[in-house]
Amino acid sequence: MNATPHPSHRILVNEPGLLLAQCRCCGEIELYFQTITMALNLTELYALIRRLDTLSTASRYVVGLLDVRDTVVRAGFQAIGLHLTEGERDQLARGLNLACLRLDMDLLTKGRLSSN
């Protein structure tokens, strides 16, 4: 996905098939992966990374996205998910981790990152 930078968003990751951008005003992370488009806050972004990291080794993966967003209670059902191959899962996990590293570097360079 080759994105044209928009002044309201900062591109975190821009790879073929994967785009992560952060809204400059609210900090929300927009994820575009294959046919999935999601808006995530930082807590949900970290939850998705943890979910992908805890999946057992398999040739095909199904990731319930409502698990990540903690909306099952509000929605009353779990119908949204990703069907991924091992390569797609790895690509998504690498991209999400890269986005987190860039966010951390941004905090570090602005002197707002905790020394802990």
From TrEMBL:
Superkingdom classification of source? Bacteria
The protein here is known as Uncharacterized protein
